[in-house]
Each structure stands twice: as structure tokens, then as C-alpha cells.
């Protein structure tokens, strides 16, 4: 078999293996890896309406840090899950909001795609929401200079309310449609 065909065969085999791996290793706080999102981003003034009576609000922020490298584009699609269900997605330097019932919640973020279950793009945290309050959580991706060497890191963490409100003024808002494979 010519070298080119052996190489292509190896790449395809690894791609299928990565897809199988990705679809079976996401944490319970995420959702099914078969759920995908299409994203559109629009300009936002960063203001938030009042929280509905008896509800809490989560603002999911997606931040891409470029340190020493610029690849272009708006970043990968990042899905956000609450209590085992994907609730929305962003794409590089954008945000979306969702209202939830008060109580304990388990959050997940993971990049969408073949490598969505790679441990450096899957993040989890939990918190207890109170009625009438807004909570900010940031998925931050650090695209290091050695990106080609696969040293990309990501985290999901709570952001102070004042910081979160300030940050929204410089971000776009993500709107999304859900689809499945």
C-alpha cells in the first residue's frame, strides 16, 4: 500500500476513534455529545433585564485569550450544560443568559466537535442559586504560543457580579440553534 494511503488510513482511524472516545466520556453534568449547536453572534449593549419572579439567572461568558499567537476566527463552539442537559453555546468572546430555578446546580462546559471530550476542554463546577440573583460563569480558553503542540487549556469558573456586568459591555451575545448528529 502506498505511503499516502497508509497515512490517510491512519488519520481516518484515529478520527473515528476520537469521535467514539468523545461521545462516551462527558461528565453527567453535561449533555449528550450528539447535541450540537449553530452559533450566531450579534452586538450587545451588555444590559440585562430584571430576573423573572422566583428564578435565578446564569450568564455564561466565553473568553479566548491569545498569548503570542493569533490564528484568526472567533473561536471554537463551546457548549454549556446544567444538570445533565446542554442549555446553550457560545463561540469566542461572547455570552448568553438563561434563567433557572433556585437550588443546587451542576454546570459543565465542553468544546463541540471531534475533540469535545478532551480533558483540557471539559470543565465542571457546582453552585447553589438563590431566587432573584444573577450568576456569571466564564469559560476561559488560553491559546498558548505552542498551540500547534496541543497545549491549549480551558477553565470554567465563577466571575464576580461587578466584573461580569463590566465584561458584558465588550462582548457579543450568542444566539444558537440546537441540532443533533
Q: Give the CATH architecture.
A: Sandwich
- Looking across the biggest beta sheet, what order are the strands in? 1-10-5-2-8-9
What can be said about the biggest beta sheet?
6 strands, mixed
Question: What count of structural domains?
Answer: 1
Molecular structure report:
By secondary structure, this protein is an alpha+beta fold. The chain has a single domain, classed as Immunoglobulin-like, CATH 2.60.40. It has two helices and ten strands, in the order H-E-E-E-E-E-E-E-E-E-H-E. It has helices at residues 3-22, 161-168; strands at 35-42, 56-66, 77-82, 85-91, 94-100, 103-111, 123-129, 134-143, 153-159, 172-180. The strands form two sheets. A six-stranded mixed sheet has the order 1-10-5-2-8-9. Strand 3 and strand 4 form a beta hairpin. The radius of gyration is 18 Å and the shape is globular. It starts with a helix and ends with a strand.
